[in-house]
Amino acid sequence: MNKQNRIWLLSAILIVLCVGTINAQINIGGVVTDQLGLPIPGANILEKGTTNGATTDFDGKFQLAVASKKSSIEVSFMGFQTAVLQVGDKTTFTISLKEDVAALDEVVVVGYGSMKKSDLTGSVTSVKMDDIPSKPSNSIDGLLQGQVAGVQVITSSDDPGAGATVRIRGGSSLNGGNDPLVVVDGFPIGYAGDLKQISPQDIASMEVLKDASASAIYGSRGANGVIMITTKKGAKHTTEVTVSQQNTFSSFTSDLNLWRDPVLMAELSNESRINGGFVPLYIGTEDANGVYYPSLGELKDGSWSYNTKWDDVVFRSPVSNNTNLAIRSQTDKTQFSLSTTHFTQEGVYIEDDYKKLNINLNVIHKLYDGKVSVGGNVIYSKGDRTNNSDLAYWRNPIFPVYENNDPTQDYFLAGSQDYSHPIALVENRTNTNEFKDFIGSAFVDIQLLPSLKLKTQLNYKTGQSITDYYNPKIYTEDGTFNNGSGGINNWDSEETVAETFLTYNKMFNEKHKFTAMGGFSYQYYEARSSDLKAYDFLNESLGNGNLAAGNPEKQTVANAYTETVMYSGLGRFNYVYDDKYMATFTMRADGSSKFGDNNKWAYFPSGALGWKMHQEDFIKDLDVFNELKLRASFGISGNQGISPYLINSRYGQDQYYVNGGWQTAIGPGYVVGWDSQTGKKTWGGIPNPDLKWETTRQFNIGGDFAFFDRKLKVTLDYYNKYTTDLLRERLLSPSSSYDKMWVNDGEIENQGIELTINGTIFKNEDWSFGGSLMFSKNKNEVVSLGNELSSGLTTDALTGIKYEFSGSTVEAFRAIPNILAVGQPINVFYGYRVDGIVQSEAEGLAAGLTGDLAQPGEFKYVDLNEDGVIDEDDRSIIGDPNPDFIASLNLQASYKNFDISMFFNGSFGQDIFNTKSFGEAGNMPLRWTQDNPTNSYPSLRDGRTNYMSDWYIEEGSFVRLQNLSIGYNLNDIDLPWLKRGRIFVNGTNLFTITDFKGYDPEIGTDGIYWGGYPKLRNWTLGVEFTF
Fold first, then answer.
1. Angstrom distance (rounded) from CA 824 to CA 813
2. Are residues 83 and 138 in the same domain?
3. What residue numbers bound the domain in which 71 lies?
């Protein structure tokens, strides 16, 4: 046989063998269920010894082609024991997986590692995104609302792109920041409240580290708790393409408090001006600015026909869109995930818009038989915001939009200084912001020994923001006074974090489990900002596109640069004996460039103990508990959330008013006004080289309980957080020659309890019903504000309490409503008490009132010190904006492919200072008059001197149906290209039960209701398909 014939013969044999092999493949299928017969979606079926596998669909069904009858398949799913079956002659399988009690201890992410949940000694709560599949949210903050006991999430505004306020176990700082740290895939990227870089669709799970035992590993950044985010990685043993679309339609939750009857509005306006000694407006003449106000007769007989509903002009029914496309894949060696999210959000105001694009890439690759893993994560986001959220929907209805109500004519302006015409502002001014963010990380993970692992991770983050603004010569106050004003504000930052650590994990004699971790961290941060401003424009056709068109003598340039460095060493040791007794110890040392050499370094230790009592025979004999674990921990964490360079002398533009004039820290200053044009700088504060870290000591004791085959689970915690050496800016007297100085001065205590109850009430093959209840009670107290003399505190004349004012001034009352008072909660309200309304001048004089305040229709302030005079010594604490407790209730039910969930949340016991309690359409008609001598509302009087009083304090408790979701899983559609699908409808902010008279009771932590950007009711229609 020649060579060519041998080749042909060999080829024929190979073809026959290949065909034989192909023909030998067997197609098998079946369903995977739990012990109750309920299908398990997402279970993994793997042909043993190969990479050939499949995943069950929503019905628990699968199809797989295996090599031969001799093949074996492995069926696995988290929380269940792995089943191994030989194929044999069967082609259809019904596989029932048994629960694995050990596997039920899911792995949770903690700082610089992960642990079995059953081995945790700290207070850590895990939130899996698969548990809330139909909860749409534009931010990760919103995803946490109502999911974790002890975490308060306040969404006080639906302003496009706005974040939320997140507090874990209350606020522990006055000036150093109270936002928890957020760590994404091991990279501490920033703080909660402004995390636009992360798309909620890219998150797999979140762990909340609440006590010091869990968070102290992050040292100076962990005092307010830590939120650990794990993003989605590659799909197991397959390639998946997921497409989701969400459309949200929004509307007001109730009618706005606006004037609908111009006649009544005019009558009350005239009444108020007459009572105040002013000439009434609505008398058919022009005012001092040349604005014609019709008479009451013209309004009543219709000869003045304009009655503009400005809310119809200013507001719209906004629509938001969220589109996500993701490709995820995994082989034996490589995990790959790429997703992109495009989000657009219309605000309720016209031309008030926000849009954002997010791209997330995750790659992990294993080398050398899995002993080395390399990978990285890239997150890129960009977006822009057109801001028109200040349009005057409250504008006077007698003014038309255009002259003669004709859109072809000019805007109708109420005089030469009308700065509130909404259409004129939208069409003529510029107020936009563009941002770009990049987050990148790369790591290498090396298995040096079977029990020893080395990991190095390099993280980099950069952000850029550009704000453009221009105020034209007319329509805007700043533009009118400056003959046009505009500017460009640039801000960019860079942050590098490099970390290397070793992890040792070893089990000895099947009873002693040791885990030790130690490493180093380096963090570098720098930020630059510049602000270019121009005024007095000869030609404003290009707006801020040509700042050179402004007057050269009035152009200003300001820039700032900050740089901080922190070095850290860290370590953690875990020990578990006999799967019963646990101990955890951590230590971190941080050195920060924000502090001087004498206080640069701080040390943050923590320790915790745990006892799995359910593993003891005497507990097992009770046959009551599936889990009974007790935990106790103590630790110290810190806070350095202040600006750099406070240990140095610095310049600023701050001034104070003394002896009838404005004074700077270095002598008499220039006239305050439009001083930004001068470019002058004044002394910004005395340096304090002895500044040091805030320190928070936290004690926690808690327990985890499970009953009835884990159908009922309870977690209970008590904590005490005590913060000392508060970083505060102390105002100094003018005689000191300086305005202010940063100091360590004061102490705050937070203590409370947290309760979480999770239950599966009913479950069978078709039906399931369960829910969770969360309760949190936190009590905070300002223990100390330093020495009264050195800290500049004021002493309350009635009680002797030492206090200082805190927060913003409410101009209508010429006062700051909030104070920090020793022995009281943070930001309590301070002012006068009111005992009804003065009904006669004699009654007013008898109450200690004088002048106009003693007249009928005025507030009857209480003379608390009974000295016969109403003055500042009669003020007292009149309210507390902190809730007594917060609670939430989640309910879920399902029937076959249908599911429904409801989420209620509530806040109870807080007070609200309502700045809109009087002076609006809904309450002005209730005023006091001789014919209506009410004891509830004062009379109308322009020029009245208002005082901060408890009359404006309202009960702010509320219960809200925050979320309602109805979904259907597309399990019965037999399409070979569709793995799974889901359709859902979701409603948020559906109704609120409250006694609060304002628009919405969910407001900021200071408790002041300003009537700002309204919260909306939202309905979302969403679909998701995986191929």
1. 23
2. no
3. 3-96
